[in-house]
Design goal:
Layout lengths: L11 H22 L8 H9 L3 H6 L5 E6 L4 H14 L4 E3 L7 H11 L10 E5 L5 H8 L3 E4 L7 H4 L2 H13 L6 E5 L3 H7 L7 E5 L26 E7 L2 E5 L12 E9 L3 E8 L6 E5 L4 H16 L4 H8 L9 E6 L2 E7 L3 H14 L4 E5 L27 E5 L3 H11 L10 H11 L5 E6 L1 H13 L10
Parallel strand pairs: 1-3, 1-4, 2-3, 4-5, 5-6, 6-9, 13-16, 14-15, 14-16
Antiparallel strand pairs: 7-8, 9-10, 10-11, 12-13
Helix pairs in contact: 1-2, 2-5, 4-10, 6-8, 8-9
The structure holds zinc ion (ZN).
């Protein structure tokens, strides 16, 4: 690796960037060697320490630009979908993988693709960004598009109230370059509130199929009031959490009319989703079908489609390419284990949990469950949110129900109050898996709904027993 030629790069700034990139790359190599595995942000931390502008400089090298993706649920899947679309069209894509979605993760990803002289040789950047890091990310990356999926209550102990997050996102979007587009979920009242104040009109997307809607908000819904007058919003359709078709009874706030909608939605458990995407402006409707499950994924797919056309991809190409998509690691993963089909699904907050439960119970007719709750930093240390999850759905449906994770005992209490009978709590991942196999008849499917680190623990146990690949090999 040669230092930059001062006659070409010219500046002290170029040398600092080179040092930052080199140090970041060395850190990444070291962490791979010590098998800390994917998702580490350490190389980003190190590089930013040496050159705080490293991400700004690298992002400016991208041939066509970047998109940043934020929201409480669905970031990783949506980012994977967008990368999948761009890569299929022959583009070289830089993206932060494995859920390392803080600004340091984005920096680490850019470093990984940078050459030794500190230049980034790629066409597009696809970065999933924590809601709280969005202002910094937009300022440094100067993206072509910023996508906001939803704003649900999540890990309050880490980020504070939804209101302050909404304000941060609003300020960040107001700071987008004039030529950039905000892509916003019209069905989410908080996202709609943010978008209604933007000077530059956003592109709105939303679902348009009441046959897949519910008509009551779940317990966990946390945005029921009008941002203008405080009245309770009226929901004509509820799709996911508080996302749906809503209006204020006083007429001062309603769901923005979406530019791009998903219609004729067909759900097949965790296996498949199909929908017709209709665009107000575009030419023909596109029928899309792909191997992802759950209504929440309808939003992720629609968002990726909206992003794809915004970044210049052809609608027919997008529909074709999506057919071959496979779920991102750990968000949803299937494997065979001692003659049982395991379905691992990340469920990290009330809105997410209610949707995966609904999919597992109502759409996939699930009977066997391992539900695992951890309270480490990445899960949120306050687990009181489990009281906002509608575990009552399991009544009369769950034949096997194992409470797992280091807060298995809290889950057991919650299940008792939900009126569903469960096996004794198993805090050890290996014993929890054994209990699940014992309780699940051979040939049947067991659904493992887990918080983030609980899922990592279960997966590590499956890797140890040779039933799953380590995730740096997937
Ligand atoms: Zn109102």
């Amino acid at each position: 690796m040669m230092p930059p030629n001062p006659k070409i790069d010219g500046t002290y700034s170029g040398t600092v960037l080179w040092m930052a990139v080199l140090a970041g790359k060395a850190t990444a190599a070291l962490s791979r060697l010590t098998r800390r595995g994917g998702g580490t942000t350490l190389p980003g931390d190190v590089a930013r320490l040496i050159d705080p502008h490293v991400l700004r400089k690298l992002a400016a090298d991208l041939k066509f630009g970047s998109i940043v993706i934020t929201g409480t649920n669905g970031k990783t899947t949506t980012a994977r979908l967008i990368s999948w679309l761009l890569e299929g069209a022959g583009h070289r894509v830089v993206s932060n993988r494995s859920g390392a979605n803080l600004i340091f993760g984005a920096t680490a990803a850019a470093l990984e693709s940078a050459s030794g002289s500190g230049r980034l040789r790629a066409d597009w950047g696809v970065f999933e960004i924590d809601e709280a890091s969005l202002p910094k990310a937009i300022d440094e990356i100067q993206p072509k598009a910023a996508l906001v999926l939803n704003l649900f209550r999540d890990q309050l102990d880490r980020y504070g109230e939804l209101e302050s997050i909404a304000k941060k996102i609003e300020a960040a979007l107001a700071n987008l370059p004039a030529s950039s587009t905000a892509l916003l979920n019209a069905d989410d009242p908080r996202v709609a509130e943010i978008g209604s104040t933007l000077g530059h009109p956003p592109l709105w997307f939303g679902l348009d199929d009441t046959t897949v809607a519910e008509h009551e908000l779940p317990h966990a819904a946390d945005a029921r009031t009008c941002p203008r007058c405080g009245a309770s919003l009226i929901f004509d359709a509820v799709y996911v959490g508080h996302d749906g078709v809503y209006r204020c009874p006083n007429g001062d706030f309603e769901r923005p009319s979406p530019d791009i909608t998903a219609q004729k939605i067909k759900l097949d458990g965790f296996d498949n989703i199909a929908m017709t995407v209709h665009s107000k402006k575009a030419t023909a409707d596109q029928r899309i079908a792909l191997p992802l499950g759950g209504l929440y994924n309808a939003y992720n797919v629609l968002a990726a489609y909206t992003a794809g056309i915004t970044l210049g991809l052809d609608p027919t190409y997008i529909a074709h390419r999506l057919r071959d998509f496979h779920a991102a690691f750990g968000r949803q993963e299937r494997m065979e284990f001692r003659g049982r089909h395991l379905n691992l699904v990340l469920s990290k907050n009330p809105a997410g949990f209610n949707e995966t439960l609904r999919t597992a119970v109502d759409l996939a007719n699930g009977n066997n469950f391992l539900i695992a709750l951890n309270d480490r930093k990445a899960d949120g240390t306050d687990v009181s949110w489990i009281w906002d999850v509608d575990f009552e759905r399991l009544q009369g449906k769950a034949r096997a129900l194992i409470p797992g994770g280091n807060r298995a005992h809290d889950l057991a209490v919650r299940f008792k109050y939900a009126g569903v009978s469960a096996s004794p709590p198993e805090t050890d991942p290996g014993r929890a898996l054994d209990a699940l196999v014992k309780a699940t008849p051979e040939g049947e499917t067991a659904h493992l709904l887990c918080t983030y680190t609980a899922m990592l623990d279960l997966r590590a146990e499956l890797v140890r027993r040779g039933w799953a690949k380590p995730y740096w090999e997937t």
